[in-house]
């Protein structure tokens, strides 16, 4: 068995890489770009919104509920819904980024809200008694104590986005899904793997990298939030 | 001697309509320690919190050196007072030094000045800043954490210290050490202290004056010796409850 792999495995891999490496690199970058753009939008929306919800908790249920509903829309259907919209539908990448943003909202929103609400109220009371202004209390106590939670939400959202971004190829937005869809259409498993393996590695890589960032912000003496 | 804190007919009613404080009047003299004693739910924490306006009284006034505490901006008022609570008072994401220096930090002190002052107060409460300054709260023992909490309250050199059951979570031996340290420190620094506790021994040990609250009412305002000898039934009941163990042990020895 080992002998077989050494003789043929290396050869197959070499052949495979020669054929697809150029495309894989290009599509990986495209994939990353879609994910990154969506994460940027989702963070810019969900983090401030989550903070706002902690100050206006009666809106928390409806808003988080709405983000939850977005999450339940099957991704293929979501791309389909967005395609006919004016301006948005003109470019597949726009559709993909909006859809991915929608999926990324929930984990970031939920973790921002829960992370900030979860800060020990006695610490906030102490901060108040020490004469910290509301803003100082937020910046110096609430935010740093919730940071690793918020980052855990970002991490979940990023991994989800990397996965769903493969579907974006269905509307022509590119990314590694293109190899998968082509492979499925032509019943070529090698081609499916050429898309699927890098997509999986990308998800693992993002997960690991963001996990490290999250660890930097972890509160000393407390466990992991995830 | 001049009056530092004065309560004038302070009353407070909780949201549910429960009267937590009723017509509380007494004064705390400059540089002395007054201990507010009472059972759980007697309103003592609420009373303490009217001084730094964490609680706004429904009636009556609290005066700080003759000025109504409602007059200054609450942020400025609070920065002028040290505040110490039982457990969980330290920020877990900050080192001991940063915890101590936070008040100075938010008041806009220079980082260097902040560091030097924090080191000084840490040393003053008996924690060597070089060894303990860089530690996070979870790396400290309960007594050490409470020392950091005290250092933090002293950092901005307030003239008034508010302490809410500061040693409540400590074992008796550590608690005694902390009480000695506090007594020595207060004698040296001449701060005005308002301390809330349900521990009679602590009240007798630390207080120049003892105030007993019961169901939101002031029952007694006495010196420690007068307190022990008081014929007031509520004071007697409190004192008796504390000496039960001694009395039953003595009875057993006699038998």
Topology:
The complex is a heterodimer of chains A (226) and B (255).
Chain A: H1 2-55, H2 60-72, H3 75-82, H4 92-117, H5 121-129, H6 134-164, H7 177-185, H8 189-216
Helix pairs in contact in A: 1-4, 1-6, 1-8, 2-4, 3-4, 4-6, 5-6, 6-8, 7-8
Chain B: E1 3-13, E2 19-29, E3 33-38, H1 44-51, E4 59-64, E5 67-68, H2 74-79, E6 81-85, H3 96-106, H4 111-124, H5 129-132, H6 142-154, E7 160-164, H7 172-189, E8 192-197, H8 200-206, E9 209-214, E10 217-222, H9 224-229, H10 233-254
Parallel strand pairs in B: 3-8, 3-9, 6-7, 7-8
Antiparallel strand pairs in B: 1-2, 1-4, 4-5, 9-10
Helix pairs in contact in B: 3-4, 3-6, 4-6
Mean pLDDT over all positions of chain B:
91
How does the major sheet of chain A shape up?
A: none
Measure the end-to-end span of chain B. 51 Å
Query: Major sheet of chain B, described briefly?
Result: 6 strands, mixed
Q: Quickly give the CATH architecture of chain A.
A: Orthogonal Bundle
Which labels suit this protein?
A: mainly alpha, MetI-like fold, 8 helices, flat, B: about 260 residues, 6-stranded mixed β-sheet, 4-stranded antiparallel β-sheet
């Amino acid at each position: 068995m080992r002998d077989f792999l050494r003789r043929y495995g290396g050869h197959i891999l070499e052949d495979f890489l020669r054929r697809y490496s150029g495309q894989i690199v290009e599509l990986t970058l495209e994939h990353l770009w879609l994910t990154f753009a969506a994460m940027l939008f989702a963070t810019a929306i969900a983090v401030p919104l989550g903070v706002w919800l902690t100050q206006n908790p009666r809106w928390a249920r409806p808003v988080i509920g709405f983000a939850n509903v977005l999450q339940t829309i099957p991704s293929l259907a979501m791309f389909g819904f967005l395609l006919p919209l004016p301006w948005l539908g003109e470019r597949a990448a726009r559709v993909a980024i909006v859809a991915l943003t929608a999926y990324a909202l929930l984990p970031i929103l939920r973790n921002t809200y829960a992370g900030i609400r979860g800060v020990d109220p006695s610490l906030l009371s102490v901060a108040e008694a020490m004469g910290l202004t509301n803003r100082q209390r937020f910046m110096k106590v609430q935010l740093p104590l919730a940071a690793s939670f918020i980052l855990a939400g970002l991490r979940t959202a990023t991994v989800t986005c990397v996965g769903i971004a493969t579907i974006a190829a269905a509307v022509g937005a590119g990314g590694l899904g293109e190899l998968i869809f082509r492979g499925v259409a032509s019943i070529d498993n090698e081609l499916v793997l050429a898309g699927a393996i890098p997509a999986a590695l990308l998800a693992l890589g993002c997960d690991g990298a963001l996990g490290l960032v999250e660890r930097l912000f972890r509160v000393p003496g407390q466990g992991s939030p995830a | 001697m001049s009056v530092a804190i004065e309560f004038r007919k302070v009353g407070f009613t909780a949201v549910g309509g429960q009267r937590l404080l009723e017509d509380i009047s007494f004064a705390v003299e400059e540089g002395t320690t007054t201990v507010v004693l009472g059972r759980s739910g007697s309103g003592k924490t609420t009373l303490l919190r009217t001084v730094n306006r964490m609680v706004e009284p429904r009636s009556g006034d609290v005066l700080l050196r003759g000025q109504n505490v409602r007059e200054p901006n609450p942020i400025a008022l609070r920065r002028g007072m040290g505040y110490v609570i039982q457990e969980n008072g330290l920020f877990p994401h900050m080192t001991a030094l940063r915890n101590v220096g936070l008040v100075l930090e938010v008041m806009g002190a220079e980082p260097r000045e902040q560091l030097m002052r924090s080191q000084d107060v840490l040393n003053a409460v008996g924690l060597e800043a070089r060894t303990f300054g860089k530690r996070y709260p979870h790396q400290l023992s309960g007594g050490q954490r409470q020392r950091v909490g005290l250092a933090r309250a002293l950092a901005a050199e307030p003239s008034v210290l508010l302490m809410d059951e500061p040693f409540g979570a400590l074992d008796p031996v550590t608690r005694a050490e902390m009480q000695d340290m506090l007594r020595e420190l207060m004698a040296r620094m001449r701060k005005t202290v308002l301390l809330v506790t349900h521990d009679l021994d602590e009240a007798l040990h630390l207080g120049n004056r003892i105030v007993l609250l019961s169901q939101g009412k002031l029952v007694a305002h006495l010196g420690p010796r007068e307190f022990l000898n008081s014929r007031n039934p509520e004071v007697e009941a409190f004192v008796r409850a504390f000496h039960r163990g001694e009395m039953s042990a003595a009875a057993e020895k006699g038998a």
